[in-house]
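Lab manual, section 2.4: Encoding a predicted structure.

Procedure: take the sequence of the chain (491 residues), apply the prediction step described in section 2.3, and record the output as structure tokens. A sample record is shown.
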Amino acid sequence: MISFEPPYPPGLPIGDSWVHLPTTAPVVFPYDGQVVAAVPLADAPLAERAIDEAVAVRNEVAGLPSHVRRAALQSVYESVRSERAAFEELLVLETGKPLIDCRVEVDRTLLTLQTSAEEVARLHGETVPLDLLPSGDGLIGFWVRKPIGVVVGIAGFNYPLLLATHKVAPALAAGCPVIVKPAPQTPLATLWLVHLFREALADAGGPRAAVQLVTGGVDVGSTLTKSRRIGAVSFTGSAAVGHQIARDAAPTKVLLELGSNSALVVAADADLDAAASAVIRGGYYASGQACISVQRLIVVEEVREAFLAKLLPLLEQVAVGDPRDERTRVSALIDARATERVREVVARAVAAGATVADDPAAELVADGIVRPTVLLDTPADQPAWDEEIFAPIVQLRSAPDITKAFEMVNDSRYGLQASVFTSSLETAFAAIDQLEVGGVVVNEVPGFRSDVMPYGGVKDSGAGREGPRFAIEELTVTRMAVIRPNPGRSR
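Recorded output:
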């Protein structure tokens, strides 16, 4: 029996209050299907109302003093820190993600809040030497950064608290009102977070309407992204949905954190023990439901067998089960539809020639959980290799040398992050120079992300960068000032 009492008011936070709605939808615990809570469902008219409310406070939020914005962010940081155990438990229930991963999510959320507060003090411009041409003699030039306007933040289900924080905190730091739309499966932690933001703003002297939340389906998302009153849309999710949002939102600015099929390359001179450990850590965390988890494992041929001999025994140590257990590393995917999709993709890969490395006779799904799996030699034209599998499935293929391995990494429509294990500085710098991704990680998992670094992809993995400093730059625009102090001296 799951008992969850929401620590926030009933309804949805729209404008200065919470709006009661007649229609609700259940949020279920993916591990066993128990209902965690019922969440109100918004519709297109309510999304339009949220835009009205955000536009109404746009100038007020833009004009909030830096100390008010920073104080609000610091207050939310303190509130989340004091309630971290409750946030962790709630994240386990609504995502089904193992407790260890939910603890990491809260850690990263706290860092994002803290650094967003710090970045408020660094939001400034520069002077410009206008007299590089004679026409600029006597002119003073400088630029400042101004908020881009109302921000729509749409987050994925796998890290709901962290992803919402990466939308809301930089927007508020930049002076932008923000409307959040969480994934339908995982709205609870985000509702609590938004409540904390609204109360912190009110305590600091700002409007609660600066941070709002709407739930709902495609009609709600379409209303938000198609509105010409929006300054920017920040979306984290699948490539297909992100591309549709970009088309719908044009010419509004869009920041897209989309899918991937991240690669880990093992060079002939790699520390094989370290690389094998990294595959286990990087391939199966969050039950494989992370866009930068290890999906494609590319091993230089001469060390393939030695590497497999180290990897496969470690696979047996990945604990599978109830995500509330501290020992669990892999549990149920977000819902039955996701599990069935993975089953079909793997079956298709095996039919095309891939083999299961550890136990070919074992069931892929047992008790509703996709077991940690290594596939060997999945053909390159298979969705399991080409697309984002979003499950605890790692696939290994060989390359004759490191040059070909890098070519295989780049032979993808995605480009978020990739890693290479090597003892050679030459190989490391070649990877940084040649891999067509937003981030190259040397001798660590491709899923390494510090929330202060610029994070984002190329190709179909998206556009724009997250990380508080970089997101704030994306959510502000430069305004140039040109001044002639003495107009009588103009040429």
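Check your result against the sample. The mean pLDDT is 97.
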